[in-house]
Amino acid sequence: MELRQLRYFLKAKELMNFTEAANALHISQSTLSQQIKQLETEIDTPLFNRIGKRIQLTEAGNIFANFAKKSVRSSEESLLAMHDLKKLSRGSLKIGVSYGLRSILVPAVKNFIQKYPQINLEILFETTDILLKKLGDAELDLVLSYQEAQPAENFIYQNLFVSEMMFVTSVHSEFSKLKKIDLKTIAALPLAMPFDGFSTTHYVMDLFKQNLISPNVKMKINDIPTLIEIVENGILHTILADSTVTDQQNLVTIPIKENKAGRKAVLMQLKEAYQTEAMKSFAEMIMKI
To answer: Which residues form the HTH lysR-type domain (predicted)?
Structure first.
């Protein structure tokens, strides 16, 4: 059993298509099919059901995938450890970010690139749900997000700061002069909110539910800059963490009376993953912002 075969198998599992997997791996489909067939022969178990041009993962394939991931990860971490001996002379760092934390990301990235120009950065903005899934699958090294209600046991958390959830409206809104606003008043207004996969929306909907109030959500959107622009134009209102709308001159943020707790912005990493020197250095820079 070779690591190459495990990587081929995992890519085929990810894409559920031999042709697409082969293209992604820059090999021929016949090579991919042959290597996976050899792997199945060696373990004496089919990993895929072939149905015409379609493939489906067998029950054995689903179980085997977990062991394959661990084997590939262990191999990659061994290489990382050797690379670290060269003290950040090469390598890459994959970072997932919630949009609300972009304000602390930019200065950290600037400092990191200036200090370690030889390290490549891959930065992914996504919903918290997707970021945590990718972190758990070791597809990301670090995640900047808000801490979920129930911290996961397989993650390491480093607290960054506490951000307050605010009612956000246009500077031209009739509500812009308010010092505070209650949930009942907010619920009567047309709201725009991020999609359900965003941690902000999870938090806000729970807040309404706890107070037995149903909000008037007129729109859900997966692009925060567009949501902000819509609110700036006075079309709708929203609720966001105050760190999300930092330096937005056309918006006003108003504290919510029923919101008694702030949200923790955290830096997360997978507990069982090898911590590279690049991860440690970037984490230190983030903590100093």
So the answer is: 1-58
Q: Domain check: are 12 and 47 in the same one?
A: yes
The count of domains in the chain is 3
Listing DSSP states for 235-249 in one string gives S-BEEEEGGGGTT-T
Whether residue 145 sits in one domain with residue 223? no
- Residue 35's nearest CA partner among 60, 57, 2 is 2
Q: What are phi and psi of 123, to 5 degrees?
A: -120, 125
Whole-model pTM: value is 0.70
Residue 225 CA: distances (Å) to CA of 136, 170, 186, 193, 248: 27, 14, 21, 12, 11
Residue-by-residue DSSP string for 61-104: HHHHHHHHHHHHHHHHHHHHHHHHTTSSSS-EEEEEE-GGGHHH
Dump pLDDT digits (tens) for 179-204: 999 999 999 999 999 998 888 999 99
The pLDDT of residue 87 is 63
Residues 156, 194 within the same domain:
no
Between residues 29 and 274, the one the model is more confident about: 29
pLDDT digits over 61-120, tens only? Answer: 888 998 888 888 878 777 766 666 556 667 789 999 998 898 899 999 999 999 888 889
CATH assignment of the domain containing 147: 3.40.190.10
Which residue type is seen at 97? Answer: V
Short-list 57, 140, 154, CA closest to 95:
140
Answer whether 256's CB lies under 8 Å from 208's CB.
no
Give the contacts of 18 (CB within 8 A, at least 6 positions apart). Answer: 12, 29, 32, 33, 36, 55
Q: Encoding tokens for residue 209?
A: 């539910």
Structure tokens at 154: 């397989």
pLDDT value for 76: 77
Cβ atoms of 194 and 241 closer than 8 Å: no
